[in-house]
Automatic annotation (TrEMBL):
CDD domains named among the record's database cross-references: Glycosylasparaginase (cd04513)
Stored InterPro entries: Ntn_hydrolases_N, Peptidase_T2
One Pfam family matching this protein: Asparaginase_2
Gene3D superfamilies (UniProt xref): (Glycosyl)asparaginase (3.60.20.30)
Name of the protein this chain belongs to: N(4)-(Beta-N-acetylglucosaminyl)-L-asparaginase
Secretion signal, residue range per the UniProt entry: none
Length: 320
């Protein structure tokens, strides 16, 4: 059995690169995905996940994360947890629980404390600066405060054929205190079945939840669709249904991988990126075009695009 990993966004490529080395040496899908997501959570310049994550309306960092074992269908998740490092590890620990496997707010924090997880102030000076800049723009320019919702979602396949899905995010920028999106919600932000495959989503959680999109992708793969067909079908149908019923659809982007290591990605926005690594292949970042006529196209990121990305995330926060 060959191994593989797929993840939302460029920010995941370093994590899956390192985790793939472990998979190549026989690591489990669970250990690999936890390692990869922790690398994203720990990097302060990735401002939508973990340390340095985007704060809520009160300038507090509330984090959501989830973990699903595709062999047993066990799930662990946390929502709105504050001041704890690596919520993905807390979610994985919760997946071992028969009951009470999804905890939020103070309950999640009490569980993390009792189980020895590291308490850390996750709000950085840079995140505070972003908050102040957006608040100023919202008041003076009438811009939406709710821009910024880049969840890291991953699927991992190991050499034994086991699969795991996991997510981690700080959620919608300047969200209301206590808001939880799709990321830690089973079937919406993630779903995984080792007998079929796994999927994960990123975008506007309030709209992604309306279609249980990750479960739908796995269901379509189980019915015989390729990962790419399943991803495109799920995004196209949900986008069209939301547009018909509500007049518009928010951002919908997904990645998926089946238990053969074949992958797919789909999006209704331009510029969505994702990262892939598979047995015998170098890690690769892809950039998508907006889906047209139910089909998403993507190509490897150019060196110019990759350089611009590094420059952008390292740029200081400036005020007009």
């Amino acid at each position: 059995m060959k191994y593989g990993m797929i993840a939302t966004w460029r920010m995941a490529v370093e994590g899956i690169t390192e985790a793939a080395k472990d998979l190549n040496n026989g690591a489990t899908a669970g250990d690999a995905i936890e390692k990869a997501i922790k690398m994203v959570e720990d990097y302060p310049l990735y401002k939508s996940v973990g340390y340095g994550g985007l704060p809520n309306e009160n300038c507090e960092v509330e984090l959501d994360a989830a973990y699903m074992d595709g062999n047993t269908l066990s799930i662990g998740a946390v929502g709105g947890i504050r001041d704890f490092k690596n919520p993905i590890s807390i979610a994985r620990k919760l997946s071992e629980e028969r009951f009470n496997c999804f905890l939020v707010g103070t309950g999640a924090e009490e569980y993390a404390h009792k189980n020895g997880f590291e308490r850390v102030n996750m709000l950085t000076d840079r995140a505070k600066q972003f908050y102040e800049k957006r608040r100023k723009e919202t008041i003076e320019k009438g811009l939406s405060p709710y821009d910024g919702h880049d969840t890291v979602g991953m699927i991992s396949l190991d050499t034994e054929g086991s699969m795991v899905a996991a997510t981690s995010t700080s959620g919608l920028f300047m969200k209301r205190r206590g808001r939880v999106g799709d990321s830690p919600v089973s079937g919406s932000g993630f779903y995984c079945d080792s007998e079929v495959g796994g999927a994960s989503a990123t975008g506007l959680g309030e709209d992604l939840m309306k279609g249980c999109i990750s479960y739908e992708i796995v269901r379509l793969m189980k019915e015989g669709m390729t990962p790419q067909q399943a991803a495109d079908t799920a995004v196209s149908k949900l986008h069209d249904e939301l547009t018909r019923r509500r007049g518009k659809s928010g951002d919908l982007s997904v990645v998926c991988m089946n238990n053969k290591g074949e992958f797919g990605a789909a999006t209704n926005i331009a510029g969505f990126s994702f990262s892939v690594v598979r047995d015998g292949e170098e890690p690769q970042v892809y950039v998508c075009d907006k889906q047209e006529n139910g089909v998403t196209t993507y190509e490897p990121a150019s060196q110019e695009w990759l350089d611009a990305y590094i420059k952008r995330i390292n740029s200081p926060v400036t005020f007009d």
